[in-house]
Amino acid sequence: VEHTVTEVITGVDLVQSQIRVAAGQKLAELGLTQGSISKRGYAIQARVTTEDPQQDFRPSTGKLMLWRPAEGFGIRLDGGNAYSGATISPHYDSMLMKVTAFSLSFKGACDKLVRALNETRSRGVKTNMPFITNVLRHPDFESGMATTSFIGDNPHLFHFSEQQNRGQKLLNYLGDLAVNGRTMQGALGPPTPMIEPLLPEKRPGMPPKGLKQVLDQGGPEAFAKAVRAHRGLLVTDTTWRDAHQSLLATRVRTKDIIAIAPETAHVLANAYSIENWGGATFDVCLRFLKECPWERLAMMREAVPNVPFQMLLRGANAVGYTNYPDNAVFKFCDVAVRNGMDVFRIFDSLNLGGGGPALGARGCTARRRPHPSATHRTARLPRPRLRLLPRHPITCASAGRLPPHPAAANAPSPPHSPPDVDNLKLGIDAVGAAGGVVEAAISYTGDISDPKRGKYTLDYYLDLARQLVDHRVSAETSRFHSCHSSRRNRGSVARACFANARAVCRRRPTRPMHSRGVRRADREGEP
Q1: pLDDT value at position 472?
Q2: CA quadruple 325, 331, 332, 334: dihedral positive or negative?
Q3: 8 A C-beta contact, residue 320 and residue 352
Q4: Fewer CB within 10 Å, N side or C side of the chain?
Q5: Which residue stretches of the chain have pLDDT < 50?
Q6: Residue 124: what pLDDT?
Q7: 483 DSSP 8-state letter
Q8: Whole-angstrom distance, CA of residue 32 vs CA of residue 289
C-alpha cells in the first residue's frame, strides 16, 4: 500500500506499469531500466482510518457527518470509503484516505503532511489523524531516529484533545433559532414571540363532498364544467408543498402532514385543490427524509378523500432534472393518478422556447439550488399559502383563438420565430392519457404592455396560449398567475391581465407514446 511513496519520488506509475507488463510488454519498452530510474525528494504516506487510538485502535463506526480533505502542492490523496453521509461499518476496511506528502527535505514532507491532516475536516466518527500528527511532530521521528519501540517508548503520543464540532453546533443553534425562536439559555436579544398555531376543532364524521367527487364521478370534463359554473372564489392551498419547501427546505415529514390531514379535509372541503407534490417534495422524500413519495401520496389521499390534489410537472422532465423518454413520463403520470393525484400544473422547466421567460409557474428558468439541511422541529406546520382563482376567466373565439388585445391589434409582429412548447405538449398528453386534469402554465416577468419591449410582448404570450389552445387546451377555463422581478413591476404586471393562462381541461391522447406527431382534431361543437 506504500506504492504511492515510490511513485511520488520516482515519477513512475507502478500500477499502470504492472498492467502493461501483464499485457505482454517488456520493462525496456516502458522505458523502465535501472539507469533511467532516479529518486528526487522525500515522501511520507499517512493512512487515515476510522480507528480510535485511545481505545487500542478499535474501529469507530457510525455516520460520517462531514468529510472535507485538505489539498495543496505536494499533497497526493488516494480516496477510500470517505464522503459526507457515508455509513462506516465495522465489517469492512476502515481506511478513509491515504495522504502522501512530498518535499525536497524530510522535514518539509513532515510539515506538509501535518498541515494536510490539520486542515482535513472529519466529523461523526473518530479517526487516527490526531495520533499521526503527534508522531510527525515528535523530534525523534523528524530526525529519523525512530525505532520499532518508538510508540511504546512514547505513551504521550496518545494524548490529544477531543475534536470540537463547533460548525455543526452553530448550525444546530441557528436552525433551532429559526424554527423555534430563542429558547436556549444565554441567547441574546429580545425573546422571540412564540405564536401558538390555531388548530381547527376536530369534527366527527366524514368530511363533506367536494370537487374530488365531481372529478371521480364525471371525469375531467365534468370537473372543468363545475369549475366554470362555480360562482365565487376558488382556492388552491399550497401548504403541503410550497410553504414548507420555502420555509423548512421541504423537511416536513409525512407523519406530521397526516396528523393535520383530517381537519384539513373539513376546512378545505370547498377548495379547488391542495398542492402537495412536485419535484422538490419527491426528491426530498427520497434523499433526505428517507420516505417513499408514493406512499406519502396514497396516505394523504386516504386522509383527504374530498379535495383534489395538485402537483407540479416539469413537462418532459416529470419531477426530475433531465429529459426522460416519453413512455417514462406517461408511466409516471399514470402511476401518480392511480395513487391519488388529480390536477397537474405543467410548466417547461427547461424554457425550450429559446431563452425567454419560462413557460411555467413563477417564472422558473432553471433548477432550484439545493436547500441546506437544518435541524428543526416539525410539530408546527407553516401557515397556509393560498393561490386565488378569478371568477371570470378569459374566453376564446369559436375557432379556439384568443381575442386580440386592443393595444396590440395594429402592432407589427416581431421578427422572431414562434416559441416552442413541445415540452408542455408532452406533459399534457401524458396527463390526459392518465385521466388527470391539466393546467398548462405560462408565466411572464415585466410589463408586457410596454410598446418598447422587443421579443417578449403581449403577442408573444398570446401566441403561446394559442399554441396550447391548438393542442386542445381550452382557454375558457384559464387561470392567471403573474410574476415580477422587482417591486417596480408589480402594478404594470397586474394590469397585463391577458397573459399567463393556465388551462384546466382534459387532453385526449391522439398519438402513441413514441411519436412526437400531433393530429389536429375538429373542435366544432365543443365547449
Answers
A1: 63
A2: positive
A3: no
A4: N
A5: 353-411, 413-414, 474-527
A6: 87
A7: B
A8: 54
Residue 480: closest CA among 446, 442, 514, 513: 442
pLDDT at 279: 77
Picking from 277, 301, 285, 299, the residue whose alpha carbon sits closest to that of residue 251 is: 285
Measured in residues, the chain has a length of: 527
Q: What's the rounded Cα separation, in Å, for the pair 331 and 227?
A: 27
Cα–Cα distance, 317 to 322 (Å, whole number):
5
- The reported pLDDT for the residue numbered 116 is 95
Strand, helix or coil at 326?
helix
**Pairwise CA distance, residues 524 & 276, whole Å:** 36
Tell me the three state secondary structure of residue 290. Answer: coil
| Continuous H helices in 339-454 | 422-434
Contact 101, 74 (CB under 8 A): yes
Q: Which of 49, 121, 124, 128 is nearest to 87 (CA)?
A: 124
C-beta separation of 67 from 83 below 8 A: yes
Q: What is the DSSP string of 248-269?
A: STT---HHHHHHHHHHHHHHTT
Instruction: Give the pLDDT score at 292.
Output: 93
Render the burial of 252-262: b for 16+ CB within 10 Å, e for the rest: bebebbbebbb
How many other CB atoms sit within 10 Å of the CB of residue 232?
8
The pLDDT of residue 442: 77
Phi, psi of 12 (to 5 degrees): -105, 130
Type of residue numbered 98: K
Buried b (16+ CB within 10 A) or exposed e, 92-121: eebbbbbbbbbbeebeebbbbbbbbbeebe
User: Rounded to an integer, what is the distance from CA 328 to the centroid of its chain?
Assistant: 20
Beta strands in 111-262 (DSSP E): 121-123, 234-237
Cβ 511 vs Cβ 429: under 8 Å: yes
**How far apart are alpha carbons 238 and 391 in whole angstroms?**
19
Q: Dihedral of CA 173/179/185/186: which sign?
A: positive
Closest CA to 408 of 444, 363, 453: 453
Q: Helix or strand or coil: residue 89? A: coil
Give me 28's grid cell.
Answer: 525496456
Check: CB of residue 95 under 8 Å from CB of residue 48: yes
Q: What's the pLDDT score for residue 401? A: 32
With both helix axes pointing from N to C terminus, report the angle between 279-287 and 293-303 in degrees, rounded to the nearest 10.
Answer: 120
Which pLDDT belongs to residue 141?
A: 94
Sign of CA dihedral 415, 417, 418, 421: negative
- pLDDT at site 65: 85
Residue 439 amino acid letter = E
In 10 A of CB 49, how many CB atoms?
A: 23
d(CA 240, CA 206): 21
Nearest to 523 by CA among 485, 469, 451: 469
